[in-house]
Design brief:
single chain, 135 residues, mainly beta, six-stranded antiparallel β-sheet, four-stranded antiparallel β-sheet, 10 strands, 39% strand
């Protein structure tokens, strides 16, 4: 049984952040579940350019409002509480949160599991997991 108390993870290596976002890694690869789960906050005014080439992701909004833009097609999707988005084909996408609004709070699941200390590369992706071979 794995029990994680959010308060115990704050300020540890599982408490990641980058320009415009914070992410508390609730489950990571070393937990042995085969996927990871994060509590991610996208800050007001942020535009995150993301392209998970080596992972698939599903994000469920629990608070706030934003827009996810599919880079390839330009399709825009309003995100708010109760809405899930999942770039299931390694889609390049952008997450926009309006300036002056509230943060977009998401619960995100990644497969394969994150190590827990990843940060986005210049192309918006995380590096390939160790041992995954060439991509």
């Amino acid at each position: 049984m794995i029990i994680q108390d959010k308060a115990a993870l704050v300020g540890t290596p599982r408490d990641a952040a980058g320009p415009g976002w914070t992410s508390l890694r609730l489950l990571v690869k070393s937990d042995g579940m085969g996927f990871s789960m994060t509590e991610t906050r996208v800050l007001p005014g942020a535009v995150l350019k993301l392209h998970y080439k080596h992972h698939i992701e599903a994000c469920y909004c629990i608070a706030g409002k934003g827009v996810v833009v599919e880079v390839g097609s330009g399709a825009r999707h309003e995100i708010g509480p109760g809405v899930l988005y999942a770039p299931d084909a390694h889609d390049a996408h952008e997450v926009h949160v309006p300036e002056g609004g509230e943060a977009l709070d998401l619960i995100c699941v990644f497969s394969p599991a994150l190590q827990g200390d990843e940060v986005h590369g210049a192309d918006g992706s995380y590096a390939a997991p160790p041992g995954s071979g060439p991509s």
